[in-house]
Every structure is written in structure tokens, then in C-alpha cells.
Amino acid sequence: MRDIYQSYNNFEKYKPTPSACVIQGSIDNPAMSIFIPTYKRAETIVDTISSALDQVGTALYEIVIVNNDPEGVTDETKEVIKAFKDEHIYYY
After folding, report:
1. Residue 73 — pLDDT band, cuts 50, 70, 90?
2. Burial code of 41-50, b = ≥16 C-beta within 10 A, e = fewer?
3. Residues 6+ away with beta carbon under 8 Å from 30
4. For the whole prediction, is pTM greater than 0.90?
5. Mean pLDDT across 45-53
6. pLDDT for 35 beyond 70
């Protein structure tokens, strides 16, 4: 049984996992970051990104979307995100 009070270093555990930025935003030193994990959810990512954009106001922000599909992008997620054409969006 796992000890709930024991600390684990998951960053070190997954350090060798490759990651590539597919869509590179252009925001330097954002005041706020919104992270959105996704997994084969192209049909819901539009609402998620739109909701994030509606809440940021005038803050200098970035939206970082991480696709957790280990086989690579197998749906239209990349195309949906590209359609936003927003300099605040980073897609990994």
C-alpha cells in the first residue's frame, strides 16, 4: 500500500520523456500561465481555450496546452488549436 505522506519526485521519473513544442507562442515573461492537459479531446478543446481566453482580462498571459497522447497526435487537436492564431498559445 502506498504511503500517502511519502514524497515522490515525479519530475525526475518522467524526465527522459520527450516533449516538443508544436505551436510556439511569442509571450515573454507572462504574469499568468494557464495549463491545459488534453488527451484526444479535439471536440472539447475549443470550449476550454475560449473559456480561458474569456477569463484572462488584460493580464500578460500564456496558455500552455499539453497533449498527453503517447502515440502522437491522433486526432484534430493540433488543427483546432492552430485555428485560434493566438500568440499566447503554446502547444506541446
Report:
1. low
2. bbeebeeebe
3. 60, 61, 62, 88
4. no
5. 93
6. yes
